[in-house]
Write a structure and sequence with these properties.
With 430 residues, the protein is of the alpha/beta class. The protein contains 15 helices and 15 strands. Helix 1 (9-20) crosses helix 2 (34-45), helix 2 (34-45) packs across helix 3 (58-68) and helix 10 runs antiparallel to helix 11. The protein starts with 8 loop residues before the first helix and ends with a helix.
């Protein structure tokens, strides 16, 4: 098959790798054309192809398929009552949750494409267990997992994704070696991470106290062996500096605020005994303390820019900021269809601001109209921040993007240090 002239060098690399390795993870940074490559692989093989993705990306996939393969027959399942036995389609597109009600699709297809495959990183999740079993038991001929962030937080997450590629029915000894050596994610984590055990004090409702052991797997070790298992299973493609618009970071310190009343109110929160901790409840409260400053900052920013995106890790700050600016608060509580509608309106210039939690608007949304992102507070997961920032980048765009990071508390410093440490591990592993 000859690729379209519009195909980039990175797309050629992905396409050739997928053609050579029928079970593989095609991991390219956002905006580098993973979906187009998956569609071209279907055209090359003329295979019945099942595409499984987050529900809010289903219509995006239909649009992409008709763009790159206009003669293709596409069936979309968005609700359980729509599911039927397919016999006349080239592509079937459905969600990770809905496909659990339609295992017959794994029997029908020759190819499975798992988009945003990092959604299957938690091996104990029901949808992940189902996907592993259905792919393995049906001996699907081709499988490709697509993601821009194969590791979002730690090396342990690689296990589920890598195990999927070792279900290739062509493999015999290699499959047995990997799955026998690492039958679960704990054995995998023990091999490639450092084991850390902590004692956490727990207080019951009746006041009794006891210590509970907590085990975490951190860092990276045995990298050469990990790379050996990834060989022929995984390709990682990063954007060249000329592919996407450059990103600059503007760190905003609340301590520099000229508004003394606001500053005093903010600092008062961090004079308490536990204010330096990063417990979930303290983190949310600290994020709420930033809201007045963020509002003032965004008001000033909007005097010089046409539009912007405002993110927080927590829904409470998002709702407060959105209420002030009289825009919808985008959180996990909002239906995917409504989120997609707001994204379209933003891109069309009908609205000039979106306020969202990091978790609710980090994948699959084209938001490159925005040149500015305001991060009112940070999350713990570097992969999620990476996805958020890349929403505003698109191939062909040249104008720089600015990420405004608002810092002001001990929590911010600790989270920033942790994110930097995690990114070092992720970059080494991937």
């Amino acid at each position: 098959m000859k690729l379209p002239k519009i195909a980039t060098k990175n797309q050629h690399l992905m396409f050739e790798y997928g053609k050579k390795n029928p079970y593989s993870l095609l991991c390219a940074e956002p905006r580098l054309g993973k979906s187009a490559c998956a569609i071209w692989l279907q055209r090359l093989r003329n295979s019945n192809t099942l595409i499984v993705c987050p529900s809010y990306l289903i219509l995006n996939w239909k649009k992409e398929i008709l763009k790159w393969s206009p003669d293709a027959q596409v069936t979309v399942f968005r609700k359980g009552k729509e599911i039927y036995d397919v016999c006349d389609a080239d592509f079937v597109v459905t969600s990770y949750d809905l496909v659990q009600k339609a295992e017959h699709l794994f029997e029908w297809c020759d190819t499975v494409i798992a988009d945003e495959v990092h959604n299957l990183k938690s091996i104990k999740a029901k949808r992940t267990e189902f996907f592993h079993r259905a792919l393995y038991e049906n001996s699907v001929k081709y499988f490709h997992g697509l993601t821009g962030t194969p590791l979002k937080n730690r090396v342990r997450e690689f296990y589920s994704l890598l195990a999927l590629t070792y279900y290739d029915p062509r493999l015999q000894q290699s499959k047995a070696d990997f799955l026998d050596l690492y039958p679960d994610e704990i054995s995998f984590a023990e091999k490639f991470s450092f084991r850390q055990q902590y004692e956490v004090k727990v207080t019951t409702k009746r006041g009794a106290q006891f210590y509970m052991p907590i085990v975490k797997y951190e860092g990276l070790r045995n990298l050469p062996e990990l790379k050996r298992w990834l060989e022929g299973r995984y390709i990682r493609i990063r954007a060249n500096k000329d592919d996407l618009p450059p990103i600059s970071y503007l760190d905003v310190l609340i301590s520099d605020s000229p508004n003394q009343k606001l500053l005093q109110s903010f600092n008062a929160f961090f004079s308490g005994e536990d204010s330096h901790l990063v417990r979930p409840d303290i983190k949310v409260q600290a994020a709420m303390q930033k809201v007045p400053f963020t509002i003032k900052y965004v008001e000033n920013l909007m005097e010089t820019v046409d539009c912007c995106l405002v993110y927080s890790d927590h829904k409470e700050p998002v709702k407060a900021i959105a209420k002030h600016f009289k825009v919808p608060a985008i959180t996990g509580e909002m239906p995917g269809t409504k989120r997609a509608e707001l994204v379209r309106d933003f891109q069309a210039g009908k609205i000039n601001m979106l306020c969202a939690t990091i978790g609710s608007l980090k994948e699959g949304a084209d938001l490159f109209r925005a040149k500015d992102i305001v991060l009112s507070d940070l999350c713990w997961v570097p992969g999620d921040l990476f996805q958020v920032i890349n929403r505003v980048r698109a191939i062909g765009e040249k104008e720089p993007r600015t990420v405004h990071r608002i810092y002001g508390s001990p929590q911010d410093e600790k989270i920033a240090e942790t994110l930097e440490s995690k990114m070092e591990v992720i970059n080494a592993a991937t």
